[in-house]
Design a protein that fits this description.
Two copies of one chain form a homodimer. By secondary structure, the first copy, chain A, is α/β, with parallel strands linked by helices. Chain A has helices at about 45-55, 60-65, 75, 125-135, 190-205, 220-235, 270-275, 290-300, 320-330, 355-370, 400-405, 420-425, 450-455, 460-470, 475-480, 480-500, 505-510, and strands at about 20-25, 25, 120, 145-150, 165, 180, 185, 205-215, 245-250, 280-285, 305-310, 315, 335, 345-350, 375-380, 410-415, 435-440. In chain A, the strands form five sheets. A six-stranded parallel β-sheet of chain A has the order 7-4-8-9-11-10, with helices on both faces. Chain A has a five-stranded mixed β-sheet with strand order 13-15-14-16-17, sandwiched between helices. A two-stranded antiparallel ribbon of chain A has the order 1-2.
């Protein structure tokens, strides 16, 4: 295919061009002294005022403006019209060029989940199949690319390479793999470059998807800031057509840096994003593969947002079949009836994030075994911004609905993927806030086993049960033996990791017992 | 001065050197396939297991280990001893080489403040004089440098150039200014490079100071993370000697981007820093020049922390003479008696940051004029981490002391420099938390006047008074006219900015009336 060649004009000018060549004996035009205010204090320095006047007079204003100070009409007529104007050119207003992606039905990629917790899958690998077919279906329109700092395969999205290659224009070696000049996966070990490419791609009316190691997306914090500010401001500009959302997948996350350790553990990009204006920010933590598919489909259809999706790549239990996943994502958060006792609970075990969800279900199992009189409700959060009041975020859940889910008077033990204080921040205006106890990542970590990471941060199942004993009124007195048992099992599991270098069989082999609600 | 030349050995090896040259027909040694695990599934693939064994056998373990598997003593004896070991070399354990800075008495640089609010000064310019003399006094030991992305002069630290120059080894032009190969101000418009230089300088046992535009320090979020993690981990390593703290001055801050606008407005680095481990993090927001001097002196003496200091560079009212400044910084936060009514207050007006402090004092003045029966207490926070409980941060104020300052039952209107939710996060365990109403930057901004910025974010004096009317029990009913007056004056000030392009004289010319406490 031949393509037109567009001429490009490169026009270099001296810094401060046409300004005073020197001021007070110092070179000014063509030097750093032209930055900002080349002639200071014109109100108090008559010589500077005279220099300023002479400078501006060189533009010959009498030829440009009429006796009323208005621009002469023959000059105004020289300006380009309509889409020839720089800002109105569709290439600078990419939303005008934007075409919807052709998306396959994400339900076709579902993991079969006959019962919760019986099937194991890698969520991002499942997503990779969906993205592969998004790539295939949109090749004719050439408007979809996937970006990532050399982690497309590491983040288990390698099925993409059945549909396309990595973009590569330079020399190739025989051992190279899936490199081609027309590849549509943009890989370079520079988050900055990926972010810049993707922003340009979106701003010119195309679609993209950006896959990252969670800890290292902080590299583009400052670039993200500017994009989020641009989205916020342009929402108020009527002639700006919305562009496709910027969607980050954060995988290889804080809880599974088994071999990389502390340097790779940082879930704080969510906090950084949450500081920006609510109307342009969305954050999702799908707990399994089917919810991830539903979230990804939603993100690829959205406009004008930054979507942050956090999802692990490791093999993990699947909880929801596709219909349940769609309904759960639609609600954004909700009670998992299949894991909850009927009626009013004694304690709410809430969770957000794939690893905390597994741990919460294991804790619910322990409560049922060891504290049989205690009624548990399990709540899962996939759309983090649902926690905020409706007055604070467009996705915010109305208070009465929130109160029905979380109760206003029962302890809530909340197991969260990231830094725990964000949950307090989002929920602090809620009626049940004083009952909320959040566990999350508190900056403790090293190169260790997955369960040891949870123990280091008091987010493990045993600690969650200890929190239940401590928080449910009356339990502290009568369930001291259960609390002691949890402390002992925790110590035993920790000792096992030190002796064997892996997690104890009781952790590794635990699976959801398939208990359905007691009603 | 001649210096020894140190030889440097550069040793390049192929990736995966000595590993299998190919695996399953694919080139491995010297290629990307050597990354991580070159031979997969050795437990299930006998050929891979055999290749692994052959690979490891090439190291001839029978020559290295004795019959018990222990390293042969004659080989162990080859390892270097004491400080010749790489990790024990003082150049890799810079704390061993660290010498205290020789510091001038910071009190000698004090701004004379005969009465609060009567003198105007630029806080960072005052700091620049102190830093200039720190530079002079430590030239003989060559262990102090100032770093900044080309903003040393813009951030009003230019007096440094009386003591040294910018480090510059390349060509110079006649119009250049203060460049020299032995300059000790490290300036480059790359926050990354400055941060990297400074980390290396500190890690090898020297001292530094890093001056930045507040919004753009996010560029090094990810680098800061790694340094903070290193500080946290090395606190637990007994042989690691503490290094000098990494001190950031964030100036040119969110509230005074009069000409730069929304892209330059982001106070979120404080939030980012606050996610890291409490024992290595310090955050200071001195409200004027003398408190800034006291904080800077403290930071330059500290070890093993990241200090974040936020201070504006614009001319602003000075509040505390040097003795009062020292006492205030010592307390970290406290009641400003000279601005407060005696006895139990009806409302606490708290503030943190230079611009919010000015605004809070202006609000206190308005309350006194328009709501004469309402007793006001003004509390200023200079050490942000004092807000946390003592259980959460080493600087945390004990609860009983906190309660005496903030009360447990009166409304607290808190005017904060940054994103308001951080104050809730730090204080949410405090008894008075439910009475706390925080105003701060809520991501509204543009290129506009200083007071318009405050109004856009509801942090202006009029809105603070409206908050007082809304929160003090009984006032909403009987002070409706005052509230309306505030709304009207706010609207008038906004209209003035739109007509004149600058703030109204009633704002520009306001000064603290010198009221002392009524007792």
């Amino acid at each position: 295919m031949t393509r037109p060649r567009w001429p490009m004009v490169v026009f270099c000018t001296p810094k401060g061009w046409t300004g005073p060549s020197e001021v007070d004996g110092q070179k000014t035009e063509g030097s750093w002294r032209s930055h900002q205010v080349p002639l200071g204090d014109v109100a108090g320095n008559p010589e500077h005022l005279q220099r300023l006047e002479a400078w501006l007079a060189r533009y010959r204003p009498e030829e440009l403006f009429d006796e009323n100070g208005a621009l002469r009409p023959e000059l105004a007529a020289l300006a380009p019209k309509g889409p020839r104007r720089m800002g109105a050119n569709p290439h600078a207003n990419g939303g005008l060029l934007l075409k919807d992606l052709t998306l396959p039905d994400f339900r076709d990629y579902a993991v079969e989940v006959p019962k919760p917790g019986q099937v194991v899958a890698e969520a991002t690998r499942v997503l990779g199949r969906f993205l592969r077919d998004v790539m295939r279906l949109n090749k004719p329109t050439r408007n979809f690319r996937v970006f990532g700092p050399d982690e497309t395969a590491s983040n288990r999205l390698a099925d993409l390479f059945e549909a396309t290659d990595r973009a590569w224009m330079a020399e190739t070696l025989p051992e190279d793999d899936h490199l081609a000049p027309d590849g549509r996966v943009m890989e370079i070990l520079s988050e900055h470059t990926c972010q810049g490419w993707l922003e340009g791609y979106l701003l010119t009316g195309r679609h993209g998807f950006f896959s990252n190691y969670e800890a290292f997306i902080h590299i583009v914090d400052s670039m993200f800031n500017q994009h989020a500010k641009w989205l916020k401001v342009t929402r108020g500009i009527p002639w700006r057509a919305p562009i496709a959302s910027l969607t980050y997948l954060l995988s290889s996350h804080v809880w599974r840096q088994d071999h990389n350790g502390f340097s790779h553990q940082d879930p704080g990009f969510i906090d950084h994003v949450a500081n920006k204006k609510a109307e342009v920010i969305r954050v999702y933590l799908p707990p399994d593969a089917n919810t991830l598919l539903s979230v990804a489909d939603h993100c690829l259809r959205s406009r004008g947002y930054v979507n942050v999706v956090v999802a692990g790549k490791q093999p993990q239990e699947q909880w929801l079949d596709m219909d349940a996943a769609i309904a759960h994502c639609e609600n954004g958060l909700g009670v998992w009836d299949w894991a909850s006792d009927a009626g009013a609970p004694d304690v709410v075990l809430a969770c957000c994030g794939d690893v905390p969800t597994l741990e919460t279900l294991a804790a619910a199992d322990l409560v049922r075994r060891h504290l049989p009189g205690v009624r548990v409700r399990v709540v899962n959060v996939v759309d983090l911004m649902r926690l905020q009041p409706a007055s604070e975020h467009p996705h915010g859940m109305p208070d009465d609905e929130f109160d029905r889910v979380f109760t206003t008077d029962r302890p809530i033990i909340f197991a969260y993927h990231g830094y725990p204080w964000l949950i307090h921040r989002l929920a602090y205006r809620r009626h049940g806030h004083d009952n909320l106890h959040v566990r999350g990542y508190k900056e403790e970590g090293t190169t260790t086993t997955p369960f040891d990471m949870l123990m280091l941060n008091d987010l493990d199942r045993f600690h969650l049960v200890m929190d239940v004993v401590d928080r449910v009124p009356g339990l502290a007195a009568r369930a001291g033996d259960v609390r002691r048992l949890m402390v002992e099992r925790r110590a035993a599991c920790r000792a096992y990791t030190r002796e064997h270098g892996e997690d104890a069989p009781e952790i590794r082999d635990w699976s959801w017992p398939g208990k359905t609600r007691t009603s």
